Amino acid sequence: MMSISRTAIALVIVALCGAVPASAFADDGAGIFRKNCVSCHGKDGQGTPGLAPALKGDKFVTGDIQAVIDTVTNGRKDAQKRYKDLPIAMPAWGTTLSAADIKAVVDYIRSDLQK
After folding, report:
1. Domains of the chain (ranges, CATH numbers)
2. Confidence of residue 1 (pLDDT cuts 50, 70, 90)
3. CB 29 within 8 A of CB 105
4. Are 86 and 76 in contact (CB under 8 A)?
5. Is the pTM of this model over 0.90?
């Protein structure tokens, strides 16, 4: 019976993993939304009364894409807030998410989430 050492198996796994681009493991827009946005905006984008506005059906979300990207990237607080009655600010995700991740989540909230 042929025996393969654990070291050889580990080296093969490491070599194979190194051959797969990191982007293959990246989340799509829906996954990014689930991880970062659902707690405030709800799983279906319906919003949370008194906390965060609905994204589904919101004309801002489906309007100027650059404005939406800027909002997700930079957040909104104080006078910048659209819904001044809500107690918390929209967090800036530009320091947490990559530009590609932000674009993916914006594409998601503008398309699939609107269905």
Report:
1. 27-114 (1.10.760.10)
2. very low
3. yes
4. no
5. no
From CA 91, how far away is CA 28, in angstroms rounded? Answer: 20
Q: Is 48 in contact with 83 (CB distance < 8 Å)?
A: no
Helices (H) and strands (E) in the chain, counts: 6, 0
Residue whose tokens read 């393969």: 4
Q: Is the pLDDT of residue 40 over 70?
A: yes
Q: What are the φ and ψ backbone dihedral angles of 10, each rounded to 5 degrees? A: -60, -40
Contacts of 41 (CB under 8 A, 6+ apart): 47, 48, 52, 53, 54, 55
Rounded to the nearest 5 degrees, what angle is found at the Cα of 48, between the Cα atoms of 96 and 89?
Answer: 45
* Residue 49 backbone zone (phi > 0: left; psi -120 to 50: alpha; other: beta): beta
